[in-house]
Prior knowledge:
Protein name: Nucleoside hydrolase
Distance between the termini: 26 Å
CATH topology: Inosine-uridine Nucleoside N-ribohydrolase, Chain A
Largest sheet: 9 strands, mixed
InterPro entries: Inosine/uridine_hydrolase_dom, IUNH, Ribo_hydro-like
Radius of gyration: 18 Å
Keywords: Glycosidase, Hydrolase
GO molecular function: purine nucleosidase activity
Shape: globular
Domain Inosine/uridine-preferring nucleoside hydrolase: 6-301
Number of strands: 11
CATH architecture: Alpha-Beta Complex
CATH superfamily: Ribonucleoside hydrolase-like
Strand order of the largest sheet: 3-2-1-4-5-6-11-9-10
Strand content: 15-25%
Amino acid sequence: MCVRSVWLDCDSGFDDALALMVLARAPQIELVGISTVVGNTSLDNTTANTLAVAEFCGLDTPIYRGAAKPLAQEPQTIERLLGAGAMGTLGRCFPAARRTAEPVDAIQALTATLRSAAPRSITILATGPLTNIAVVLLLHPDLVDAIDSVVWMGGSTTSGNHTAAAEFNAYADPEALDGVLRSGAALRMFGLNLTQQVLITPDHEQQLRAIGTERAAIVADHVGYYLRMTDPTTPRPAALHDPSAAAYLLWPGLFELAPARVDVELSRSLGRGATICELRVPRKADPNALVAATADGEKVMACVMAEIHAHLT
């Protein structure tokens, strides 16, 4: 079995938590480090959430605090949607972690990891704004040679969700996305156009509750809140954003990616943070990314739920 060395960069949030659960026990994944970044909520919250979920999963992977603000704007958080600390729940919560983040910060830790790695040996899975990754590559552009790919949940080939034009992770730090796009890193973009094909549903919530353990009830209460974000009285299917990108690392055959030229709008306008994806055939520009286009959503969800269930019995 080929084992992939993965660095997870996240802004945990609930769907980041599920992405971590998907990877935690996978034998084909070696999590070499986890970094946190401001995004869904403050850096303090994303770090506390990540520590809690890692401990829930039995992971001892080192966790490092990263950027507390974007490169060129004030933080944009979405607790109003995701609930307190971006971990909304119907009742139960992940228990607070007993351990703390490492004393070294994420920029130093990721730099050291890439510096000591063989060429193209580290996959970065980024499920939040790309601030940490951009800072490392702006300070040390040669380290791009150690990166196999940056698998990023963010952007969209169509419309946005934070604004009409922009997906949240792109809008939260568009300058960072621009820096990664210009770095030469092999970007794999899993945008809203893809994640909206992978739906978690009220049936999945009930499957979790049927397990009957306290651990399963905790996850079910978080899932239940997520399904009721737009209407507290009625659970509705919802796109499973970050776990879709994590699933690609385990089951790439369930996804189709297409080469594209990706640019991000940096102006202080209504279009700020929009990802412009040149996908026309014949090509009108040289590609700088692979963009996830389609997924077998039902199979992806079945695989994701199987990994999550393994943590809950």
